[in-house]
Structures are given as C-alpha cells and as structure tokens.
Amino acid sequence: MPASKTFHSRSSIAKEIATLDALPVKELKNRWRQLYGSEPPHGVSRELLTRAIAYRIQEQAFGGLKPATRKLLERLATDAAEGRPLRLGPPAQATAGTVLMREWQGATHEVKVLDNAVLYRRTRYRSLSEVARLITRRALVGAALLRVAPARAGDLP
C-alpha cells in the first residue's frame, strides 16, 4: 500500500461515514475543504456533499478507481456531452478474421478485419472509418456503422 494511505479498519471507516449525517452543513463544508483541498461547489446539496465526502474518505483509506474505470467514466461523460448513446462496455474491438456486416440502403456490406487493415470489396483500407465514409458518403465512426459477426471458415483472405 502506498505511503500516502493510512491503515484504517473497515469498521472505523463505516463509523466515520455514519457520523456525517449528523454534521451541520458548515462542518460538512469544512470536512470537504480538508479532504479535497478546495472550496465545495456553490449550491451543492447536503446529500451530494455527504456522498462526496464519504467517497473521499473511502478513497483515501482503500484506494481510488482503477484506471480502466476512470477511462470508462471519461468516455461516458464525453459521449453524454456530445449526445451519443451511452454504452457501459468497452468499445468493441474486432480481431483479425472477424467479418463485419451491415445492410445500408438495401445493400449488404461485408468488411473483413485483417491484422493492420480491413478488406472491403477486395481493397485494403487503413480503418473501418474509411470504409464507413465510403459506404455512407459521410463521416462516421466505422464501428458505429458495422456490426460484428464471427468469421466463417474460408473467409480469411
């Protein structure tokens, strides 16, 4: 455990968090300043203030979010800010041999994933996005256009 973290038992942390509900808002704000080193957000509700303090207490005692979780939350925030649908899983990653299929305006399009490229209509492209632009004639993220299907025997180039 890093030196910056002090050892606390789970029960002592639970007791500390349980006392937060009884603290006046002024003391909660002081606790925020101690834990975060900044002023609490203006107009923050008592409930959110209490939850944020409880989180920070646990974070300091037991550790914070894993890097993968932080990355997921950052991606979700970006997607939400840009009006995209929220997906909790990691972005799909097609491996070599995967066949991506999509019907677009009455035609079925198949793209084969290679090691460092994709194959569409016997032509190699650097990315799925290039193929998506070719198919739709507009800028799209390739993975958003195409859906994944397992490779069939004999489909590899």
Shape: elongated
Record field, number of beta strands: 5
Helical proportion, percent range: 40-55%
- What's the N-to-C terminus distance? 50 Å
**What is the ordering of alpha helices and beta strands?**
HHHHEEEEHHE
Rounded average pLDDT = 82
The largest beta-sheet arranges its strands as 4-3-2-1-5
Count of helical stretches: 6
Number of domains: 2
Strand content: 5-15%
- Which runs of at least 5 residues are low in confidence (pLDDT < 50)? 1-6, 147-157
Q: Which structural class do the helices and strands define?
A: alpha+beta
Largest sheet properties? 5 strands, antiparallel
What's this model, at a glance?
With 157 residues, the protein is an alpha+beta fold. The protein has helices spanning 10-18, 25-36, 46-62, 67-81, 128-136, 142-145, and strands at residues 99-104, 107-113, 118-120, 123-125, 147-149. The chain contains 6 helices and 5 strands, in the order H-H-H-H-E-E-E-E-H-H-E.
